[in-house]
Write a structure and sequence with these properties.
Largest sheet: 2 strands, antiparallel
Strand content: under 5%
Oligomer: single chain
Structural class: mainly alpha
Length: 354
């Protein structure tokens, strides 16, 4: 990012960054490059027209993107709405005529703002109107009551882990599942960034795991939880060890829903890719994931987790995505084939899964 700001303050140099920004938007790892995209988009080296072109590309792509990319794009658009509302508004207005109702609804759902377009009012006509007449198109972010559906929820948790069954935990989980139906990233972020879920390292990941392992919740809510878990993994790597959530991810890839299995496979891949290579890390949930049972849990070394993920599960992820019963047969073979190498892994699986 420092290299971006080091460019000469001339539009000719800024325009070179536009193709870079558009490549970031379609990158499978866009979630890792949101800060870089913001630096490019709102750099002084970018002309206003180029800034609008980048924002327009994000806006038109978001409703049609894959689920995981959609959440990352939605999060970036939300940040634009909060930090650069006029830039976002000025970029969206010129392309409203090109968006069909489905795209507009998708954009509103992903970004959490409202666009109201009145019949017979094109952007060309808007350009010729006076300021008093500009209310033909309304752009607004949700009001306070709409953006804070969590005001009636508990202000603190009696136990940080969501694997503690209590009315207060269930009320938060149910609120998330209900809100997830609308795919309003802004509303979800309001909850997920609250002090309620950030007081302990175990709260957020156990929250996601409870959602995706609860079959009564909608498929969309469970896939959203898995997608956000991936973002959490990448945000906390490489200082945190999330091996305690491998059993819950195994549940995800044995789900009856293909969408949930796909999201679970992505999460296992992300866990393997971001898994720390040093033993000097914090094992999340070591003492408080299961309040009454943590003392008896046996945790694996870094090498053992790498073996379990890289040698046993990941090579067969495609089969797991196609067949919800495959992971059961796979792990059954590991447990039955007791050899000197793998005893600890087998104990781990027996303790958590069986």
């Amino acid at each position: 990012m420092p290299q971006v700001e080091a460019l000469p303050s001339k539009a000719a140099f800024g325009i070179l960054l536009v193709p870079v920004a558009k490549k970031l938007l379609v990158s499978p790892k866009f979630a890792d490059h949101q800060a870089l995209l913001s630096t490019i988009t709102f750099s002084e080296q970018i002309a206003v027209s180029d800034r609008q072109a980048i924002i327009q590309a994000a806006v038109t792509q978001a409703p049609e993107a894959t689920r995981h990319s959609q959440f990352a794009l939605g999060k970036w658009i939300v940040s634009c709405a909060k930090e650069h509302p006029e830039d976002l508004k000025n970029a969206v207005l010129p392309i409203l005529d090109t968006l069909d109702p489905k795209q507009v609804h998708g954009l509103e759902s992903v970004a959490g703002f409202t666009l109201k377009v009145f019949p017979g009012c094109s952007f060309a006509e808007i350009q010729n109107q006076s300021d008093e007449e500009m209310d033909e198109i309304e752009y607004s972010t949700p009001n306070e009551s709409e953006s804070d559906p969590w005001s009636s929820l508990p202000t603190e948790l009696s136990n940080p882990s969501f694997f503690t069954i209590s009315p207060e935990h269930n009320s938060i989980l149910d609120a998330f599942a209900t809100t997830a139906k609308s795919v309003s990233e802004m509303k979800l972020e309001t909850l997920l960034s609250s002090d309620l879920l950030t007081q302990s390292p175990v709260s957020i990941p156990s929250f996601y795991a409870r959602v995706w392992t609860t079959l009564s919740y909608p498929v969309r809510a469970r896939t959203i939880a898995l997608d956000h878990f991936i973002l959490h993994l990448k945000d906390k790597a490489p200082t945190s060890d999330f091996q305690g959530f491998i059993p819950h991810l195994i549940i995800a890839i044995s789900d009856l829903s293909k969408d949930v299995r796909d999201a679970g496979a992505n999460a296992l891949t992300a866990l393997h890719e971001t898994y720390p290579t040093t033993s000097k890390v914090t094992v999340v949930g070591l003492a408080d994931l299961y309040h009454d049972e943590s003392a008896g849990l046996k945790w694996l070394s870094t090498a053992e987790v790498k073996w379990l993920l890289g040698n046993v599960i990941l090579p067969k992820l495609a089969e797991c995505q196609l067949d919800c019963n495959y992971i059961t047969r796979l792990l059954g073979g590991v447990l039955n084939g007791a050899g000197k190498k793998g005893k600890k892994e087998q104990y781990f699986l027996t303790r958590f899964v069986v």
